[in-house]
Automatic annotation (TrEMBL):
This is Uncharacterized protein. Residues 336-388 form the EAL domain. InterPro entries: Biofilm_reg_signaling (IPR052155), EAL_dom (IPR001633), EAL_sf (IPR035919), FHA_dom (IPR000253), GGDEF_dom (IPR000160), Nucleotide_cyclase (IPR029787), Rev_trsase/Diguanyl_cyclase (IPR043128), SMAD_FHA_dom_sf (IPR008984). Pfam families: EAL (PF00563), FHA (PF00498), GGDEF (PF00990). Residues 19-79 form the FHA domain. SMART domains: FHA (SM00240), GGDEF (SM00267). Residues 196-329 form the GGDEF domain. It comes from Crocosphaera chwakensis CCY0110.
Length: 388
């Protein structure tokens, strides 16, 4: 990589599997410009099955989910994740530029190695090129603060390549559910370490199916893209907006100081989405339902928080209520909501069984009727009694 900033023009040999780029001195590659974010971008080397070679991917921001202030542009197009190819031109949203060149390591001479780029310690944990990093703590340069979690790779199938489409929603270009879960894991780890709070919002667009019915799916897609843009514009730097699926979106606030501030954020989101949208001469105001969970108040792990937020979302859909902060859901509400959700899954997975019980006449000792029962044959708990 050839990097040009206000200080110099450098040729950097990319020999390690991960590099952080930014103006802070802790970065692997320091960029000397005040217009560049402290941690502006990340380079990760992955294996590309199509070419049977390693390739570098550039990500906007760091691996904690913090995006850069000005973004990154590859060949003139702004991107969140991009696989670099030979000759690609990279701009860091200011006067700093770089070019990427795929050069065989056998042809790299010592003169190409930038002495200002610190080598990673041989004691540090190396990232295997067939793994996707999903959990990093605040200072990845310290061995004790660096970890990898690979369980989420099950969601990606057997493909060990780092694919942009696996992490971004193709319609809105927001992080998808897989990447959003990654960000939650990272945020919880950092919140535990610094004893901070974080919040998760699940947002459902009310009666969005009517837009598809009235205007068509193409216009519906345009509305979803417009919603995504508004969500990105109304959150703070460092917050994450994602496409949760269908007409649902999600927002992660990795740093919150006081719960009272959440009311203002909630109202800003509702107002932003309530203002009329104009898509190809079609004007439409949208109403929303929100569900929220706060760490550590409502859960200690990602799934607990997501379950709680989803429970609130379902509750507010039924009551058509936006007051997600001052309303406390009882344990019964949460339990019933979770059972309802699991029963839907049981229907899909065909876990419900039909049993028949004869009704006998005690005088004639003959069968006069048969009563039918549905029983839930849970794969883990077996037959679930009706009272449960």
């Amino acid at each position: 990589m050839v990097l040009e900033d206000s200080n110099s023009r450098r040729t950097i040999s990319l020999e390690d599997s991960k590099y952080s780029l930014g103006r802070h001195s802790s970065n692997s590659i320091i960029i000397y410009s005040k217009q560049v974010s402290r941690r502006h971008a990340t380079l990760i080397r992955k294996f590309n099955r199509k070419t049977n070679q390693d390739s570098f991917w550039i990500l906007d921001g760091d691996l904690e989910g913090q995006k850069s202030q000005n973004g990154i542009f590859v060949n003139g197009e702004k991107c969140t994740i991009h696989e670099l190819k030979d000759g690609d031109l990279i701009n860091f949203g200011c006067e700093v530029n770089a070019s990427y060149h795929a050069v065989s390591t056998a042809t790299i001479s010592d003169s190409f190695i930038d002495k200002n780029v610190p080598k990673q310690s041989t004691k540090s944990v190396k990232q295997p090129i067939n793994q996707v990093p999903t959990l990093y703590l605040d200072n990845p340069t310290e061995e004790s603060d660096f970890a990898l979690e690979t369980s989420s790779l099950k969601d990606l199938g057997n493909d060990d390549t780092f694919q942009e489409e696996s992490y971004l929603d193709p319609l809105t270009e927001l992080p998808n559910r897989i990447l959003f879960n990654e960000y939650i894991s990272i945020a919880i780890t950092n919140a535990k370490r610094h004893r901070n709070c974080l919040a998760i919002f699940l947002i459902d667009i009310k009666n969005f199916s009517e837009i598809n019915d009235n205007f068509g799916y193409k216009i519906g897609d345009y509305f979803l893209q417009a919603i995504a843009e508004r969500l990105k514009n109304c959150i703070r730097t460092g917050d994450i907006a994602a496409r949760w699926g269908g007409d649902e979106f999600a927002i992660l606030l990795p740093h919150i100081n006081e719960e009272d501030n959440l009311y203002k954020i909630t109202q800003r989101i509702i107002k932003e989405l309530k203002d009329p949208f104009t898509v190809e001469d079609n004007n439409q105001s949208l109403a929303t339902h929100l569900g929220m969970a706060i760490y550590p108040k409502n859960g200690q792990v990602p799934q607990q928080l997501l379950n709680y937020a989803e429970t609130q979302l379902i509750h507010h859909k039924k009551t058509d209520n936006h007051n997600i902060l001052n309303e406390n859901l009882s344990k019964e509400d949460v339990s019933l909501s979770q059972v309802e959700k699991r029963l839907y899954e049981a229907l899909t997975k065909e876990e419900l069984c039909l049993y028949y019980q004869p009704q006998l006449n005690s005088n004639t000792r003959k069968t006069e009727a048969i009563e039918a029962f549905i029983r839930w044959n849970h794969p883990k708990y077996g037959l679930v009694p009706p009272r449960q």
